[in-house]
Design brief:
33% of the residues lie in helices and 22% in strands. By secondary structure, the protein is α/β, with parallel strands linked by helices. It folds into three domains: 1-56, no CATH class; 59-158 and 277-317, NAD(P)-binding Rossmann-like Domain (Rossmann fold); 161-274, FAD/NAD(P)-binding domain, CATH 3.50.50.
Length: 319
Amino acid sequence: MTRAQIADPDLVRKAEAGEEAEIRECVGLNLCVARRLRKFPIACVQNPDAGFELRAVPRAATARHVVVVGGGIAGLEAARVAAEAGHRVTLLERAPSLGGQVALTAGLPRQGAHRYLIDWRARRLERLGVHVELGVDADADAVLRLEPDFVVVATGSEPGQRYPGAISAVDVLRGAEASGPVVVLDEEGHRKGAGVAETLANAGREVTLVGDGVAPAGSLVHTLADAPTRRRLQAAGVRLVRGVRVVSVESDRVVVEREGTHEAIRAASVVHAGRHRPADSLLTVLRDRGLAATTAGDARAPGLVEDAIRSGHDVAAAL
């Protein structure tokens, strides 16, 4: 119950009052544990106010019309915080559903709790009266027609193209075909590379997960999820390659180097679970058209889910 009440300090009161739908569920990502192990102040993925209680968001002196472009996790958080501060908020999302890349992550093995991050915020926006429009590919003209006082551009990020011909991990999660044998190139050592490798292996593919300068799942060590993740990968038959750097990606192989020795790994498909770049082009256009605007989440700086939520929260808190 400790982590649950970090995620929602009002959990007991809400449960007693029959307000279960209002409870902000702990998602078990263990950011609180990771920060404690590294001697950092407490923090929570689901509750960005945890550890920052003395920086409470004040009620807005003047209500403004805030338009949030993008219904990923940063956009949802920015819309929530702005609406709770008393602003009138409109959220525009290109896809037919909310959540962005976090919704894709929720489809990975053992990552379904990511849905709580999305669903709680979606319920909260409904209760706050935020106007949400789905299926809207908002350009500058569409935003201008809404006559906003301020725009938050939370349009996410795009996979980098370091290896032409490789399939991005995001595209695999969206249904792109990756025939085996598959080599997954992981530049981050986080859930994306490991989760995609496990998903493909569970679908019957022969999979090799290569940590490109990182250990597969190594970034999960402080959340205590690294060992269980590696056990699941091994049980699924995924070959783990660590202690290497990628030299080249060719049509039928990936060449890696370890201590001066090269090794070729056979591959029919290569999946790149690497760094992203901001999808922030709308910001410049809006500013050129005279609108006050800023970015949030991956559109500002691609990072982890906790970074996106913190960014959305802080951008809205500063209005």
